[in-house]
Structures are given as C-alpha cells and as structure tokens.
Amino acid sequence: MSHLQGGRVNVGLLQQQARKELLRLLEKCEGPKAIVWDESLAGPVGLTAKYSLLKEHNAGVMFPLRAGALPPTTAKHVIFITRPKLQLMDLISENIQSEKRNITRQGREYHLIFVPSFSSVCEKHLQHRGVFGSFASIDNYPCFLFPMDSDVISMELSGSFKDYQLDRDPTCLFQAAQALMALQRLYGPIGYIWGVGHAADTVWSLTKRLSLESNEMRNIGSSSIDQLILIDRAIDLVSPLATQLTYEGLIDEIFSINNTTAQFPIDKFVSDENSPPPTGPKQIILNSADELYADLRDKNFNAVGPALKKQAKLISSQFEERHGEKTVQEIKQFVAKLPNMLASKQALATHTAIAECIKEVTDTSDFLDTIHTEQEFMNCMDTDKICPFIEELIANKAPLVKVLRLICLQCATGSGLKYKVMEYYKRELVQVYGIQTLLTINNLEKAGLLYVQSTSRSYTSLRKSLHLTMEDTSEVDPTDISYVHSIYAPLSVRIVENIFKPRGLKHLQDFLGLLPGPSFEDTQPTAYFGGHVRRNSMSSEISQYDTPKMVLIFYIGGCTFAEISALRFLTQQDDTNYEFLIATTKLINGNSFINSFQYNIPAAATS
Which of 50, 338, 559, 580 gives 20 to 30 Å between its CA and that of 363? Predict the structure, then answer.
C-alpha cells in the first residue's frame, strides 16, 4: 500500500489506524472466528485489512449478511460487522434466531461491531426482536474514512445525499463531522475553513460542537492540513448528472468502480488461443500503484489512445536495446530492468483492453446522442421544451435510470422544467414504466432534483459568469477543467478554482447568492500559527507562503471521478501554490446518484 503514502498528507496513516483497531477488536475473541459482513462494508474494510491478514488472526471464515440461517461453520465466535441500520438488525435477528433453533450450534458466542458507532435505535430494535441479550459483546469500530488513493478518501456512505436531502436524516452529517474530528486528531487542527450549502454548514457546526465537547484540539500539535473547503452536493447537481468523459470516469460510468476495483468482460483479456474458455468477469484493481493508470486516469478519453501509443513505442524501444553487441555489465543492467519492463508491457496490454471495452460503448449512436443532448442542455439550448431524444428513450423503454438522469439534467440546467413539460414526462413515464414510477418521481421532487420552473434562472447566470461551458477547450492538451466533460466545467470545482485566485472570494460573493444554502468561513487556532487565529482570506493566506498549502476538499453528498480529475488538474498548473486532499461521503456517478432515489422499480423497467 505504498501508493497511499505518495501525497503530502500520508493517507496510509488512516489505513494503519483502521487496521490496528479492527485487529484489536477481533483479538478480543479467542479462537476461530467467523465474520458476517454487512455487504456495504466488506469492500471498504477490505481496503484497510486484507483477507490474508484477517485469516492470520483466526478470522478466515466470512459470510455476507443475508436473511435466514447462517451457513454452517465450526467457528466458536460469530462476529457481525455492520452499519447501524434497522433493516440490517432484522437480518442479524433472523440469523441468531435460526442459530438458536439449531441444537448443533449451541454454545457459540455472538458479537456485534457497529461501524462507525453504536446506535440506541438499533439497540431497542434488537431488544424488540428478542436477540439483544444474545451478544457476548457489542463494540464500535470508529472507522469513518477509507483510503481510496494517496489523495482521495471516502466515507463510503451509500445514499448519503438522499438521507439528508430527502429523508431529513442527519446521521450522515453527524458522521461527516466525526470524520473531520478523526482527521484532525490524526493530522492536526485545520486553521481556515470555508464552505457552501446547508449540509456543509451543518457539518461544520457539528464539528465545532464536537471539538468543544471533547476539548481534544487544544492538545494537538502541528497540522498537515492547512485549510478546509466543505461543499454540499446540493449546490451543484449538474456535475453528478453529466456523463464523465475522463478515462477513470468512463470506467465508472460503464463498468462501475467499487472500492478501487472494476470488473470487465473476461474475453477481452485472453491472449492465449489455447487457453480454456474464460468464465466470469475480469477483476482489476485501479489505483496509483499502477503507474500507467495514474498517468491515464485523469485524461479525457480522446487523449487515452495517443497516450497508449506513446507508451507502446517506449516499451518497444526498451526491448530493442537487447539487440546488438553488449558487455557483460550492460547485459546485467538490462536483466535488472527486465521485471519492470515486463510489468509495463502487461499494464499496457491491460489498459489497451480496457480502452477497447470503453470504445465499444462510446462509439455507439446511443452514447453519442446522449452526450449531444447533455451538451445542448449544459449550453442552455431547448431546456424549456420536451426533448425528442428523451421521448425516444421512453418509447424504446430504455433503462429508467438513464431517462430520469437526462430529465433531471434538463431540470438542473433549465433551473426547473416548464409545468407542461414536467407533466408530459410524468405521464409518459407512468404509461411505459408503470404507476410505481410516480414514487421515484416524488422522491426526486422532494430532493430538489425535479421541480417546476420559476422566474429565477440561476444556472444560466452561473454559466455565463463562471464560464461553465467552454466550446474551444482541447481534450488532448487541456488548458481548462472543462475537458473532463468535453465542454462543461464542474461548478463545484470552478468555485474552488476561483477561491484561490486573487480577490477570489470577493469575486464569488456576487454569484454565491444564486446557490442554494449559505456560504461561510471560519478559523480555529493551530500550532502552525502559534496557537492564534489567522483572519486572512483563503487566497491571501495561500499567497503568503512559498511552500504549497495542503487543502482538504470535502464533498458532502458524493463526488464524481470527473470532479476529482478536475481538482487534480488545478494542482498541476504552474502557477498553483496548493495541493488537494479530496474527501467525500461517497464516490458516485449519475446512475448511482439517481438509483438511490428509486422506489420499488420493477426489474423489467431497469433491465
């Protein structure tokens, strides 16, 4: 996991701390152990503690948390590791009740570990189900953030935006505040804070309250993180709905990246004609440990082909060096380089295959029509009218998530839909996908993703003032962050970019009123400033120092890979004096974002 230590902030410390705490909890149970995982946690926790490590600590048996009876196991201890959610408590109750009815499984001990913390509501629910007294121990595993790469950490809270925006459940906001506290305990207090949006404001208020209650920050030394920017996903709904056009973004759009891993069609990766027929998908880990992937991931997909060709020529020239007369010393040097050369050749073959998988999709008329429609919306073209392409998708019974995503994008870029347009879409959706679709539409309306247009045209104003669309940007050799969507600059990142310009915040004040929710700034004492509070703005604070400042960008409600690529692009410019550590409640794309609002959609409609 050395790739986690590549940034200014050593993200590897988060991993080490989480691993140490998990092993401590497991070692409390002597003897063979079976772990029953909440399926949403198996992947994230696997980033901190591999299966082989858990096996060394007598926890080699693992099951997903499912309804009914547990699979047979001889383990003395059964450890449930779960998020504090009521539906999961029902599954655990079923498991334990089935165990108790089985005479052969008497004498077994059950343990419950909540991630990240205990819930009194869950306790009462387990008591109501009659299984609370069955647990020999109940513990917390306070792991709030999981390291995805050297500059990206995620809480991996699925549906976090829906939780606070639709369900009005503040749990994820409180956990985000706890995550900020955990980061400051590990890396030191953050001196300057700026945020935008209701959720961001709530998270910082909760963080300050936790800090005052614990009184921990006073005893912490110097800080590795200089400044914090909190962004509520609700202030920018266009960016998660638009199709990502970076290499990493398209992998996520088409194949889904989960906990740094994606699955691809296996037939694209078989090179030996004599090998047996492949079965199952090809699983590939995607992070900066792969140097070629680190170079490709933030490029617009149109720049990936030339980059792969360049790499192929470089590798070919390296292998050509073996020809010709050579001294013994030169041969030794070549042999020493050979393992790295072979690894580079394998990486090239892998990413060429992935690029071919992506190209099969991006070359289709359906994909190109989707991008064309999105770009028209982002340029404020025909957002007041019924969209013929959306009509066509509905008529052809395209996946509902695809249709809803485009309708929501039209709504976001048009600052609402005309009443007649909204009613037409509702009528058509119900007729084709069923009456249940109204429940999903209702969720989207309550969450602010669908609404009837008023007189305000905030997106139109923001687009012009902040140059959110750029027609002449280069995709291969970009000079602006808009390359990540080919023409559209993510609003959230454009705001960050403007913050660090001279008089940036004063310039932004004219436009922040167009965004939902307040903007705020705050300071707190740090050892770096001799225990005193600094009152300067973020941009002036950065300009005073030669050493690049470390800024934590925290997205509340989810962040896309395209936004991450755009933020990385900013730090790579010659005139920047800052570096970013990107945190989020969840890594999302438009499909996962919309799917979190779906309600009992029939399988036929989403197939």
Answer: 559
**Nearest C-alpha neighbor of 105 from the set 75, 135, 61:** 75
Cβ 194 vs Cβ 227: under 8 Å? yes
Closest CA to 538 of 191, 220, 274, 300: 191
Per-residue confidence (pLDDT) for residue 331, from 0 to 100: 73
Q: Is the dihedral of CA 447, 453, 456, 461 positive or negative?
A: positive
Q: How far is CA 50 from CA 44, 53, 585, in A?
A: 10, 5, 22
User: In whole angstroms, how far apart are CA 105 and each of 26, 29, 69?
Assistant: 21, 17, 11
Neighbours of 327 (CB within 10 A): 8
Angle at 553 between CA 294 and CA 15, to 5 degrees: 60
Between the CA of residue 361 and those of 250, 366, 392, what are the distances in Å?
Answer: 10, 9, 19
Angle at 525 (CA atoms; ends 519, 530), nearest 5 degrees: 140
Which residue matches tokens 């693992």? 62
Q: How far apart are CA 539 and CA 543, in angstroms?
A: 6
Phi, psi values for residue 243, rounded to 5°: -65, 130
Report the distance separating Cα 88 and Cα 268, nearest Å. 38
Q: What is the mean pLDDT of the chain?
A: 90
Q: What is the pLDDT of residues 389-414, one digit of tens each?
A: 999 999 999 999 999 999 999 999 99
What is the SS3 assignment for 445? helix
Task: List beta partners, residue 263.
Answer: 283
Provide the angle, in degrees to the nearest 10, between the axes of the packed helices 419-433 and 437-446. Answer: 150
pLDDT tens profile 465-495 = 999 999 888 899 999 999 999 999 999 999 9
Q: How many helices (H) and strands (E) does the chain have?
A: 25, 14
Domains of the chain from N-terminus onward: 2-143 (3.40.50.2060), 148-239+481-593 (3.40.50.1910), 251-362 (3.90.830.10)
Lowest-pLDDT range, 41-50, 66-75, 113-122, 536-545?
536-545
Residue 240's nearest CA partner among 405, 459, 384 is 405
pTM over 0.90: yes
Q: Quick one: 316 exposed, middle or buried, by C-beta within 10 A (0-12, 13-18, 19+)?
A: exposed
* Residue-wise burial string across 150-178, b where 16 or more C-beta atoms lie within 10 A, e elsewhere: bbbbbbbbbbbbbbbbbeeebbbbbbbbb
pLDDT > 60? residue 529: no
Q: What pLDDT is recorded for position 193? A: 96
pLDDT at 5: 77
- Inter-CA distances, 530 with 218, 289, 523, 524, 527, Å: 12, 38, 14, 11, 5
The amino acid that residue 37 corresponds to is W
Cα–Cα distance between 464 and 457 in angstroms, integer? 11
> What is the model's pLDDT at position 481?
96
